[in-house]
Design brief:
The protein has 69 residues and is α+β, with helices and mostly antiparallel strands. It has 2 helices and 2 strands, in the order H-H-E-E.
Length: 69
């Protein structure tokens, strides 16, 4: 698959964030976050720690640990 500059830029930014805690997620855009409803993605990610970022084709995937309470 040819390199997609915007996907590579996002992957690079995600890799720099590995190890950090997710403070806030803006998932209000129903088109971008489909099929999830506004608030669903934020409720899972906020407060958790990003542990890995991977590019698969033209998509980026992240892994993380849940919020520690």
């Amino acid at each position: 698959m040819p390199e997609l500059p915007e996907v590579e830029a996002a992957r690079t930014a995600l890799e720099r964030a590995v190890g950090r805690t997710v403070a806030r997620v803006d998932d209000r855009d129903e088109w971008v976050c489909r099929p999830h409803r506004p608030g669903e993605i934020a409720s899972v990610l906020e407060g958790g720690r990003l542990t890995a970022a991977h590019r698969i084709g033209n998509a980026n995937r992240i892994q993380g640990t849940p919020e520690s309470r």
